[in-house]
Amino acid sequence: xxxxxxxxAPRSNGYRTRATKSAHTPRLNAEGSAAIAxxxxxxxSAIGAFGLAGDRGIQRLALRLITLITARYNWLRNExxxxxxxxxxxxxxxxxxxxxxxxxxxxxxxxxxxxxxARGTVSRYSLDIAVLLDTTRSAWQLVGPDFTDRLTRTxxxxxxxxxxxxxxxxxxxxxxxxxxxxxxxxxxxxxxxRFRESAPVLYEAWIRQLVVExxxxxxxxxxxxxxxxxxxxTHIREQIFxxxxxxxxxxxxxxxxxxx
Length: 260
Hints:
Layout: H1 30-38, H2 40-52, H3 56-72, E1 80-81, H4 84-91, H5 95-108, E2 111-115, E3 124-127, H6 129-135, H7 140-143, H8 145-154, E4 174-175, H9 187-198, H10 200-207, E5 211-215, E6 218-222, H11 226-247, E7 253-257
Parallel strand pairs: 6-7
Antiparallel strand pairs: 1-3, 2-3, 4-5, 5-6
Helix pairs in contact: 2-3, 4-5, 9-10, 9-11
């Protein structure tokens, strides 16, 4: 049974302060915590702009996350500790909807489960700031050039290991359309349409910004950053490959690269 915070009660974050930290909980020093706290308005703006640029499902998910962060996120601890019943009340939905939406946020990589709730306690989550900013990068320009410049300077992107040199010097890069038009015979357009239909959240966050090229049975997928490419390789490459093999003739290999 999950612990609830009564309306009007002091915020306790749902757990005893003397509890032992999970081995997976980010350990931030005071300077790091303060930096994240100072960046919170930019993070919320990035989520909002990205959500508003998406379809209704993305808009609703972004609004719910922003509301949850504003109401219950502990920026100094980089932690969210709140029960599903309280989230359901905050979002005016049932607990099944909460489970579904929280699963989408974990699937996106925006929320990390740090410790699963047990009897009498609630689950603890943290925002993955690097993933969140990389995912929303395409919407930064909608806020303004100053916002883009600020986040570009402050975002810490993990160093990549792929130089992309093996991909060759000349490419015919084909940006895929946001959705395939009726009668569109482009294989990548059909792949995108099928992916968007089956997993719209993943599509908006990770697939929409990709560009591709095909050469002699090998499809090369290029991401806007090495961090983005690493996520695609680790989490959704097999889904993309399965869809591509159904649309591309004699496709034997799929490579995912960051920027050259």
